[in-house]
Design a protein that fits this description.
Blueprint: E1 51-57, E2 62-66
Antiparallel strand pairs: 1-2
Length: 67
């Protein structure tokens, strides 16, 4: 899953990780928007996705067949 990054800076107050505002939990600190680098080659155009029937579901996710 690729997280969506908005164009505004809300929740990302500064370069210091203690000011970023996204708590990763498990005592691992926080994540700044600038810390997340996704190469263009790994991005998928949502218009090219085919979503099939649901094949599974858990406490935190639903899994669909698709390509």
């Amino acid at each position: 899953v690729i997280p969506e990054i908005s164009g505004d800076r809300d929740g990302f107050a500064g370069e210091d990780a203690s000011e970023c505002g996204i708590d990763l939990g498990l005592g691992r600190g926080q994540l700044c928007r600038d810390d997340l680098k996704i190469e263009q080659r790994w991005l998928i155009d949502p218009n090219q996705l085919l979503l099939g029937p649901k094949i599974g579901e858990g406490g935190h996710a639903k899994v669909y067949e698709g390509l």
